[in-house]
Automatic annotation (TrEMBL), chain A:
One of its GO terms (biological process) is tRNA wobble uridine modification. It comes from Rubroshorea leprosula. GO terms for cellular component: elongator holoenzyme complex. Belongs to the ELP6 family. InterPro entries: ELP6, P-loop_NTPase. Pathway: tRNA modification; 5-methoxycarbonylmethyl-2-thiouridine-tRNA biosynthesis. This is Elongator complex protein 6.
Automatic annotation (TrEMBL), chain B:
This is Elongator complex protein 4. CDD domains: Elp4. It comes from Rubroshorea leprosula. Residues 108-121 have a biased composition (Basic and acidic residues). Pfam families: PAXNEB (PF05625).
Amino acid sequence: MDQRSSNLLDEALGLDCQTDRWALAGRVVAIEDSVETSGSFILHQLVKRALAPNSSTVVLFIAFAQPFSHYDRILRKLGCNLAAQRVNNRFFFFDKLTLQCPDVDERNSPVSGLVALYGEIQETIYGLPEVSRKNVTIIIDDLSIVEVAANGSSDYVLDFLHYCHTLTSEFDCTLITLNHEDIYSSTEKPAFLLQTEYLADILIKAEPLATGLATDVHGQLTVLNKGFNHGQMNSRNKIRNFHFRVKENMVEYFYPGSRN
Amino acid sequence: MAATKTRGSSFSRAVSAATPSLAPGLKCGPNGTVFLSSGIPDLDKILGGGFTLGSLVMVMEDSEAPHHMLLLRNFMSQGLIHNQPLLYASPSKDPKGFLGTLPSPASSKDDKPRDRDTDQEKGLRIAWQYKKYFGENNPNFTGHRDDKHEYCNDFDLRKPLERQFLIRQHVDCVSLQDSMNLSVLLDHCGTFLSQFPRNDNNSSITTAGRIAIQSFCAPDCGYSNMEWHMLSFIRSLKSVMRSSNAVAVLTFPPSLLSPSFCKRWQHMADTLLSVKAIPDEDRELAQLLTGYQDMVGLLNVHKIARINTQVNLEYPFPWSFFCGCSTGNAAFMLFCSLSSISFILSCWSKLSAGSYDP
């Protein structure tokens, strides 16, 4: 990128190289975080990158956690005007804060709410002009709340994810999801988490520092890139680890100990 | 939403925030948020101003000690002092009885200042390294306590709240004991919250509401074994809160939830606190802390609401504080009533490594 400098996260995801195609096209990215270390800043960064002026990526943001105003304010400080992008049909916001699938006892199964949601997503993509259809990024914030909306039926949520996954192969969409690792790590069989990890091409984990708490380093990121088939870097399963510090208008990424 | 200006570039001028006119008891926060007071001055300071309107505060109880009740009492009293409508739900059969235990603001400071100063001085002596965090992050914090409409009062737990406050503002009391159906409670909350709708402009806020839900998953409640329903309720409450000018404080005993669900609840919270009892007559602690005999418990701040921002306040979490009472009168303590709550900073790093780390 000539105009702006790329950071360690961009490099890890392959977003630093100037190509006409969005580097994450057709890939599934799973972000995991915990109570101590929130990973939402990664979503914000990816939205910003996707809506960069020189790309034609369209973002479909499926929000279960926060209303539009929250993301709008944050992205504005990061230099991205979501309201304008919304008008320009580059940013579609699906407000699902109140989506609740009907109970199992009723005639409709919990899946009907999610089926309708998938229908909306598909409809939106079909409604895009031909040129944009190949450049769609779907972001889901966040999966643990989708489970709540489905009354705990993780299987239905997984089915929904698999359907969204078909869009990555059919349309070269990018699928980005956020979930909370510490919810599942305390269960005997963290099947849901393992399934999403298996589905993902890129796994980004936000964790607290192993050494404890600090004010100027907020946590560490581990990026696992399965099958990094980009350009000259042909190494499979590339793992990167670095630290980060979240600020209002940017996030600093740096290797441990190299912060000045 | 009002018509948005469309611009070609991704940059837009920073929204010039005309200071909204706020009713007493409310304070402007960063990023277009508004605070109301928790009822505990030091807690407001730690949280960067208070509880954010539209947020859900969750308090993890200690099953062996009722300290969460102190937080609730101060929160509820503060609301009534500021004429903010209150909805209170508890597992007891007659929640109204709890209102009689709400504290009144300390009337005169004559009996306290000297002791308080000494405590403060002693407290600051130990915790000197934390002073810098407060200085930087709380430019709004002033010491204007003579103002009639104080943002946050010092409460005297010995004195019950005057009846006029309870009569002036009808407190909506709900018993959770026999309720099997959470949707009824949700509707009730929804109706209550409809009194404080939030518009995007936030030009003026005339009134804000408070919801206090005590021991939400207590076994007395009919729905307590319906884990997904409870979680669904919390999620729905949170989404209604987002479009209301109100704060909800929900306490729960984490030991009654499975670890996985406990984590889910923690993630749901915007602001997450926990309280823990400290043992009486612990010699090590007594040596470590001055004023140990005044302390009743440990308060941990696990996370603070991040609404409209991706940034945490600049301290590492969790923060631990000792809560206790500052009394001018040593003899009074023997009667085990608490005169007021004040938070005393301590060498948390030393203690959090030990057995007091919850």
